[in-house]
Give the backbone structure.
Amino acid sequence: MPDLSTPQSESDATDSGGWLRPVTWIAALLGLALVARSDWIIVPPTLRHPIVFAGGRRWLVVGVATFLVAMSFVPLVSRVMTRAPDRLRRPSAGARGLTTLVVFAVATAYLLFTAKLQGRDFTMNIQDEMMYLVQARMLTHGRLWYPAHPLADFFQELLIVNRPVYASMYFPGTALLYAGGLLLSIPDWLLAALVAGGAVAMIYRVVAGVTDDGVIGLLVAFLFVGVSAFRWTSIMVMSHPLLLLQGMLMFWSVLRWRRARRPGWMLAFGFFAGWAAITRPLDALAFGVPLFAWIAVELFHRPLREKLVALALMALAAAPLLSIQLIFDKGVTGHWLRTPVQYFHDRYFPGDFRPRHTGDLPPNLDGAPSAFKYHYTDFLLKQEMKYRGESLRLRWPVALKYGVPATWLLFFLPAGLVALIRRPRASPLAAVFLCFVIGYMTFPFFLPHYVMIVAPVVLMLVALGGRQLATAAGRFAPQAGAAVTLVLLATAVVCLPEIGGMNDEPRVSATMQAFNRQERRMTKPALVFFRSLPDNESAWRHEQVYNVEGAPIDASPVVRARDLGPRDIELVRYYADRQPNRTVFVFHQEAGQLQRIGTAAEIRDHPQLLDVPDVRPPEPPPAPARRKRGRTDPADD
């Protein structure tokens, strides 16, 4: 296995003994201080259940690191790691492409394997996934929205616009991909894993390109697989892995353009940038701003004609994708520059994106389902209040903490910043992290799994920091490089769930899973009323009124509708006139029980069939009473 000590150029060897050496050791001291002040944890995908190394357990990490350093001084170990073939570090174009394919195949296979081994449910478990698939289903019919359903109140749902049209509220970039999967009959979990595997492969390709080192690219890709938030989203219909892939493809396009100066790469860059802009706009800016600056620097001394051609090609490739967003905005909100996200929040939660949020319950929630109120008080309001108290200084630690698989890797980070002095080509990628954190200061939500998008940047700095420390070790550089490589590899391995034992999915909706199991045995076509008890404050986490199987709604084999009590007969009559054989069910969310009522025609003639009582979940058995121990207790004898 190669190490991180081999100089990449004459300047590497020279600088290791020059003025950069004392700066590097100062950076090492800063790294020690950074780790000393941080939690020693294997980082979870959300805020819950990290693997903590506190108190005496920290000595376990220190002991293993010390053992690996000692092993690096064993001649056989040092010799094996320093005599790695040069083609791994400086591969040919063919070898680089083959390595990218191997990384893609191995990463995709592993992500599916570990999800299966952990017993994860490959069906949808959160509202975001279903919302994206509603949008994808519409796109397979060439539509971004449909006219509002005649009985739109039954289809009022989180993340869904039900008036004046029926549409998903998010940007359409993710749905464009999954619409292709639906047309090709690719399971959504498989397509998600292919996207995630592609992201890992492109991380290797881009990091190896900007650092001119294939070993660093492989190490960063391996460490990134150890990031739990990435594994958590890798089989889910989510926008984050796709945006990461798009961002890396943007960098790859610019790297190829700088090398060959072929105009076609500007077309590729414009396409990926435009697609990213309608996937996650804020994250797209984090990637795009450094790259546009890099392109501008490269074009500064070029002829005017070349500048104009490059700009025209970028705009030409991005324009169709940006036009999709503009058309979407106009069709849903009536305004070209007002997004459906803004419309939805203004309709229900008007204070969300305003700096002086009062914390009061918005009057817009009057008449909305109770799930909207609980979603606001249990999630949105908490994020708003947290955002009000946060400053830029407080978001840096969160971004760094969730940008690594284990927090002790932050030791190498300051030295990685020093390493950028010798590798200026890596600076645009490093700047993505800066733009990401600053950009999110304009947005109230900063959830841990958002940070996975810039985790490869942090890990690149970690790996570069290891190289920098190794070259600063002078005559012990081979041993230091071997030690750093062993520490990074050991950390990557121990952060895998098969070794470290961390579950990648701390939140699973048993309610959604219960319906998914019963839905397979349901008589179709069907109409399901989803009923939730009004006092259930966590019911919003299990909302399921997302018609993912058909577009428009009436074409769905299973129409999912909100239970509106006495008004349910209105929707039954609607289908009795159009699809009289559609079977009607009630799904009791808390009990996870699906109850058949009859066909739409039967219920139209006998409305009393809808008068079914609520089904509450069974009460848990009482805990056995513990006897008080006293002098008469035989256990005292």
